[in-house]
Amino acid sequence: MRKILxxxxxxxxxxxxxxxxDVAGSLPPALCDLKQDVxxxxxxxxxxxxxxxxxxxxxxxxxxxxxxxxxxxNLPGTQVKVWLVDYPPFFDRQGNPYTGPDNKPxxxxxxxxxxxxxxxxxxxxxxxxxxxxxDIVHCHDWQTGLVPALLSLEKxxxxxxxxxxxxxxQGLFPYSTFLALGLPQKLWSFKALEFHDQLSFIKxxxxxxxxVTTVSPTYAKEIQTAEFAYGLEGLLQYRADNLxxxxxxxxxxxxxxxxxxxxxxxxxxxKVDAKKSNKKSLQDKFGLPEDxxxxxxxxxxxxxxxxxIDIVLQAIHELMKIPVQLIVLGSGEQEYEQALxxxxxxxxxxxxxxxxxNEELAHQIEAGVDIFLMPSRFEPxxxxxxxxxxxxxxxxxxxxxxxxxxxxxxxxxxLEAGTANGFVFTGDQGWDLVxxxxxxxxxxxxxxxxxxxxxxxxxxxxxxxxxxQEYVRLYALTMKAHKTRKVRQKYDDHARLDVKQKVKKPxxx
Length: 509
Ligand code: ADP
Ligand code: GLC
Prior knowledge:
By secondary structure, this protein is α/β, with parallel strands linked by helices. It has 2 domains: 266 residues, Glycogen Phosphorylase B (Rossmann fold); 188 residues, Glycogen Phosphorylase B (Rossmann fold, 3-Layer(aba) Sandwich), CATH 3.40.50.2000. It contains 21 helices and 18 strands. The strands form 3 sheets. The chain has a 9-stranded mixed beta sheet, sandwiched between helices. The chain has a 6-stranded parallel beta sheet with strand order 15-14-13-16-17-18, with helices on both faces. Strands 8-10-9 form a 3-stranded antiparallel beta sheet. α11 packs across α14, α12 packs parallel to α13 and α12 packs across α18. The two termini are 36 Å apart. The site of adenosine-5'-diphosphate has 18 residues, from α1, β13, β14 and α14. The site of alpha-D-glucopyranose has 14 residues, from α1.
């Protein structure tokens, strides 16, 4: 039985801002089913402590900041053990784990996540009173990026895997932060943590992890290009032999229209027509005319550039002329929230907008709308299109990342072959989206063909079964490669890292 320390800054249902939490909450149980001994580790945010029925203190670790406790509990509804890194001055803050009440990143994020990483290293090296030592540390996103870097300096360290959920968030900080964190000077190099004179947390994972993965095969290719990697494409090309894309699965229990307690009427492939009462109830909730025939479109997601919200905004006037109804649930950039609110004021009979985070409503939208809009400009994997498919809600997407890997366009050929499960458009202008909606509506008006599409969407297996097995295979491979230290030697011998590429500014974080 392999021992895996699974490190993530968010885990559903303990604390969540996006898909990373969904993955960290559903992949570990799937790995346990495959006989892996998995421990989850995340910071002890107040919501996380509250969400666990009970916790007990398993270790006290002395760090320069003071004493850090490790609390242990269970991931609700599973056997997976969770360790919470408890240092109240850093983590006892309500709300979003990364940003303060002003929606800006906490000023001390580098200190907070560096401490998180250092505790993971202490546990991985068995220098605490915890009796469990991992064979592999599986890190996720920049908040855990220093772990592979710090472990590379240790003798007999466990193997490391770093999974990229989003290259737009790299954890960049000034050189002064590198100094203030007291990181070893040898890590200040373009072959290590330095990125154009800045400290890059994500590089710690990309450079030093034995294996790098990302969450879809297409994104694994995309991030080897300048458009998707923001200056790190050279490094990712260099790591190509140790870089792979494993498609995310979904939590088949939480997202199951047959048993979903949040929705008005439960349904399945055998009873798709019951979707109608979910549509009615959603229209009612948003005060929209209860018309079963008007197409109801929905969006759930972070309101950020990545999600193509600007494309939707450009399209709204034309969409309203068709007419359609549109419901948006999301939070994020203020300018998008305000623009949506303005459209809502103009089209109150056709639009519903909920600004904020609401898990229950997310389920009701997936169940109630006919069409899900996800015109992302980039999408490492995307989970909402998968939830949509499972709920017989057909997605309209752009062919990027995981969207390209999961949505089959309803062309005549694909319809004929019975593989179509949504609509794909390539442009990035409002009218491209309008055209795709119009194309979808031609089929929407043909009830039989629409139902066939819905059934194709609902039949597919979106569970973790296959992908969890791929991770298990990768764990085995990584441990073998780690033993021979092939990966790192290859890196050390190589001085060709192309960091001179044009740098695009990634999102904050
Ligand atoms: P990302 O991780 O880039 O935000 P994903 O599609 O992978 O995108 O996952 C988003 C997850 O977050 C889904 O579970 C989605 O339902 C959820 N989500 C996003 N915004 C909201 C919101 N405002 N309210 C409820 N759930 C949300
Ligand atoms: C990120 C990506 C999203 C992905 C999720 C889980 O937040 O933006 O595409 O589905 O992580 O891997």
